[in-house]
Write a structure and sequence with these properties.
This protein is mostly helical. The protein is built from five helices and no strands. Helix 1 runs antiparallel to helix 2 and helix 3 packs antiparallel against helix 4.
Length: 121
């Protein structure tokens, strides 16, 4: 039980970048005796779901901006769409509260991400 708690702490240090990644990998290898803990596999799937949800929310936002500002729909319909979108964004915020979502866009060694965001801008 004690070893499990230590491994969870090291994983949280690695995610929050409190220690360099190499140190965390060394400590994980030391405590796990060279094997990867099974919790890491679930976290990567959860991270992928968070990224996919973020992209979906971004696409929804882009659609709503397009619908409200570049089409000629009646004002009542615009208000309805905006109200629904505010509710959807509120639910998304409620879902992401308490999760450690990376707000840093660029990380070392991920130049493709930089090019995507530069293209979008």
């Amino acid at each position: 039980m004690r070893k499990k708690i230590i491994i969870q702490e090291i994983n949280s240090w690695k995610e929050s970048r409190m220690l360099p990644e190499q140190y965390c990998d060394y400590l994980l290898a030391l405590y796990c005796k060279g094997e990867l803990p099974p919790a890491n596999l679930n976290k990567t799937w959860s991270d992928k779901k968070d990224i996919l949800s973020g992209l979906l929310i971004g696409a929804l936002f882009a659609f709503i901006v397009f619908l409200n500002y570049f089409t000629e729909i009646p004002i009542r319909m615009q208000m309805l769409v905006t109200t629904i979108s505010i509710i959807a964004f509120g639910l998304a915020v409620r879902r992401f509260i308490g999760r450690k979502i990376i707000f840093q866009i660029m990380a070392p060694g991920k130049a493709g991400t930089l090019y995507v965001f530069l293209f979008i801008n």
